[in-house]
């Protein structure tokens, strides 16, 4: 249900399970991980995560599978690890990742969106994180990403209040960066603009935006950026008043 497609300077990670409104079965997380590997190997300037299902970005985890976990203790761990590995791999890609959310984005779909660097929502987008309606919790790493995006208060309101919000409200609280008429068109515009940036800068900036972690020296990352192969080309292009031609 997940596949990677190259499209000129950028790539597309397509979610395609329309009959289930892109609900993700347990094996779907493995497909996401594989598509992420394909994207990393292709090394596009930017990656757009988009849906092939009209009216749905991602309905979350497949409830048919979730229902089996009540009695399957081992399956719970396998599900959590599969979801965690795939989402973290998406977040770790060294180039910009843009979520184009047109339609419903719920539960694990929000976790998928939060792994992207930028999220834009179309006018028909809807968002909710309602695990409490099912009597379950939400992965800690995804709660952390949600709180980092919207703040602890709004994260608590989404998780505990269980309300569905529209694109305008999502933009107001910072869940998405922009609310636009058509998300995919805006995502493509952003990806085209990002194609002019230096790959080494994107990789470093993403690590710095993610914050300080174990073994990460952000001062050293900044200092090292001046030694990148892209820096001389960037300076030369500025002086010559032309667009830089970075190595891809």
Question: Could you describe the 3D structure shown?
Answer:
The structure is a single chain. The protein is an alpha/beta fold. The strands form two sheets. Strands 1-2-3-5-7-10 form a six-stranded mixed beta sheet, sandwiched between helices. Strands 4-6-8-9 form a four-stranded mixed beta sheet. Helices cover 47% and strands 16% of the residues. The protein has two domains: 2-194, 2-enoyl-CoA Hydratase, Chain A, domain 1; 199-239, no CATH class. The protein is built from eleven helices and ten strands. Strand 1 (2-7) and strand 2 form a beta hairpin.
Q: Under the CATH scheme, which architecture of the largest domain would be assigned? A: Alpha-Beta Complex
Distance between the termini: 28 Å
Compute the number of strand runs.
Answer: 10
Strand share of the residues? 15-25%
The biggest sheet, with number of strands, parallel, antiparallel or mixed sense and barrel status, is: 6 strands, mixed
Low-confidence blocks of residues: none
Radius of gyration: 19 Å
Biggest sheet, strands in spatial order? 1-2-3-5-7-10
Q: What is the CATH level 1 assignment of the largest domain?
A: Alpha Beta
CATH superfamily of the largest domain: 2-enoyl-CoA Hydratase, Chain A, domain 1
Tell me, rounded to a whole number, the average pLDDT: 96
| Shape designation | globular
- Could you state the oligomeric state of the chains shown? single chain
Structural class estimated from helices and strands: alpha/beta
Q: How many structural domains? A: 2
Q: What name does CATH use for the topology of the largest domain?
A: 2-enoyl-CoA Hydratase, Chain A, domain 1
Q: Helical proportion?
A: 40-55%
Order of helices and strands: EEHEEHHEEHEEHHEHEHHHH
Helix tally? 11
């Amino acid at each position: 249900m997940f596949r990677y497609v190259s499209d000129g300077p950028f790539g597309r990670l397509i979610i395609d399970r329309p009959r289930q409104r892109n609900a993700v079965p347990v094996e779907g997380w493995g497909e996401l991980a594989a598509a992420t590997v394909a994207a990393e190997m292709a090394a596009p300037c930017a990656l757009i995560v988009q849906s092939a299902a009209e009216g749905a970005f991602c309905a979350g985890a497949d409830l048919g599978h979730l229902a089996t976990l009540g009695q399957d203790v081992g399956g719970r761990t396998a599900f959590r690890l599969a979801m965690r590995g795939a989402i973290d791999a998406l977040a770790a890609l060294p180039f910009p990742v843009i979520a184009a959310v047109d339609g419903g984005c719920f539960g694990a779909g929000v976790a998928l969106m939060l792994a992207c660097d930028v999220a834009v929502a179309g006018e028909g987008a809807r968002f909710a994180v309602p695990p409490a309606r099912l009597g379950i919790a939400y992965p800690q790493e995804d709660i952390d990403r949600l709180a980092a995006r919207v703040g602890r208060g709004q994260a608590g309101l989404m998780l505990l209040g269980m309300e569905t919000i529209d694109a305008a409200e999502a933009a107001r609280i910072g869940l998405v960066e922009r609310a636009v008429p058509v998300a995919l068109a805006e995502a493509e515009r952003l990806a085209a603009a990002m194609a002019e940036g230096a790959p080494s800068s994107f990789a470093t900036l993403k690590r710095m935006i993610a914050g300080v972690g174990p073994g990460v020296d952000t001062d050293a990352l900044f200092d090292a950026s001046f030694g990148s192969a892209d820096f001389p080309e960037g300076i030369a292009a500025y002086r010559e008043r032309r667009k830089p031609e970075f190595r891809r």
